[in-house]
Amino acid sequence: QKEVEQNSGPLSVPEGAIASLNCTYSDRVSQSFFWYRQYSGKSPELIMSIYSNGDKEDGRFTAQLNKASQYVSLLIRDSQPSDSATYLCAMESGGGADGLTFGKGTHLIIQP
Amino acid sequence: EPEVTQTPSHQVTQMGQEVILRCVPISNHLYFYWYRQILGQKVEFLVSFYNNEISEKSEIFDDQFSVERPDGSNFTLKIRSTKLEDSAMYFCASIPGINTGELFFGEGSRLTVL
């Protein structure tokens, strides 16, 4: 059974600070990892993808992957109120056909 | 920018009725998916569709569910006899090729079963 675990939060962070979101997964075969942002009542929107160990930076976002520890994280620098949303961690381990396994998401609140 | 479109945005139905949810994936995409999200819960994979047939389906996708691509553009999810527990947001998604989880999601269809 593939599982993706996230702390549901809410995680409250002051505006301008760094928000750190964490995710662990159970399937050692997993190859690809993704962070999606979901505003309330809306569909998930891809923020970052990461496929190899280490860090990947894109603007204010940095994804970190450690396959040995089965751990993925997302850092959001200079947090803005518009970053307030639920962040979904997802993994893919079977190619395109199997779809993604999502975590339940972490609710992030950026306090102005 | 091309997008995945879904209709209806919200449907209310009586238990036991049939429901069809429609999606128009991005035109040059190859893999199509349906996902479900019950209120307050995680996004769950239902089914993937490639080359006009089902590629994979989850345990949730039982005999009451079916998918088809009747005209080469629309991609539909049919729920034959709805149950209360089918109430959820249903998302259609597509990707341009395999080995990528960079899904393009539609805005979703909210299904309420009374």
Give the secondary structure arrangement, pairings included.
The complex is a heterodimer of chains A (112) and B (114).
Chain A: E1 4-5, E2 11-14, E3 19-25, E4 32-38, E5 45-50, E6 54-58, E7 61-66, E8 71-76, E9 85-92, E10 101-102, E11 106-111
Parallel strand pairs in A: 2-11
Antiparallel strand pairs in A: 1-3, 3-8, 4-5, 4-9, 6-7, 7-8, 9-10, 9-11
Chain B: E1 5-7, E2 10-13, E3 19-24, E4 31-37, E5 43-50, E6 53-57, E7 65-68, E8 75-79, E9 88-95, E10 104-105, E11 109-113
Parallel strand pairs in B: 2-11
Antiparallel strand pairs in B: 1-3, 3-8, 4-5, 4-9, 5-6, 7-8, 9-10, 9-11
Task: Give an overview in words.
The complex is a heterodimer of chains A (112) and B (114). Chain A is an all-beta fold. Chain A has strands at 4-5, 11-14, 19-25, 32-38, 45-50, 54-58, 61-66, 71-76, 85-92, 101-102, 106-111. In chain A, a hairpin with an 8-residue loop joins strand 9 (85-92) and strand 10 (101-102). Chain A is globular, with a radius of gyration of 13 Å. In chain A, 36% of the residues are buried. The model of chain A has no long low-confidence stretch (mean pLDDT 92). Chain B is mostly beta strands and 114 residues long. Chain B is built from no helices and eleven strands. In chain B, the strands form two sheets. In chain B, strands 2, 4, 5, 6, 9, 10 and 11 form a seven-stranded mixed β-sheet that branches. Chain B has a four-stranded antiparallel β-sheet with strand order 1-3-8-7, with no helix packed on it. The mean pLDDT of chain B is 92. The chains are: A mainly beta (112), B mainly beta (114). The interface between A and B is medium-sized, with 24 and 26 residues.
